[in-house]
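lol forgot to send this yesterday, sorry. struct tokens for the thing we talked abt
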């Protein structure tokens, strides 16, 4: 089991659930204080493994024992966004590609693609991913593919 400092430094002092900064000097009893979520299970090709992840105490408590939800940024213009946790689990297990959202313009799709890679680099750092934008039917599909 890693220490809070080790997990925090590895995760760049960002909450894996809300992706907001975590203050390493905040009290662990504060809602915005750091905590280690030991219940994050990543299902890989070699079976499920427990991963310790950094979270705000409030985010960790709110999640409880239910499957976490990692939200898409409200600043993006995406339609039918895929649930990120389930998508990452499937791609970790099977590899391949998945369409994860639709966007009305190329600029919206490019912005969403950049955000998605940045977010998933912290959420699933051991999973090599790349994004592709495919035009079709008057819209742009955002595709996530294992590298």
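and heres what i got for the seq, position by position
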């Amino acid at each position: 089991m890693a220490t809070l400092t080790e997990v925090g430094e590895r995760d760049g002092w960002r909450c894996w659930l809300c992706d907001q900064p975590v203050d390493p000097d905040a009290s662990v009893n504060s809602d915005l204080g750091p905590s280690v979520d030991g219940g994050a299970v990543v299902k890989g090709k070699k079976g499920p493994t427990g991963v310790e992840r950094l979270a705000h105490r409030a985010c960790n408590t709110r999640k409880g024992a239910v499957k976490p939800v990692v939200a898409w940024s409200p600043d993006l213009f995406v339609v039918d966004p895929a649930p990120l946790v389930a998508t990452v689990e499937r791609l970790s297990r099977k590899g391949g590609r998945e369409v994860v959202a639709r966007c009305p313009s190329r600029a919206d799709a490019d912005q969403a693609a950049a955000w998605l890679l940045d977010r998933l680099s912290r959420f699933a750092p051991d999973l090599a991913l790349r994004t592709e934008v495919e035009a079709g039917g008057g819209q742009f599909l955002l595709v996530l593919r294992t590298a």
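The helical segments are 4-10, 57-63, 84-94, 106-123. anyway ping me if u want another try
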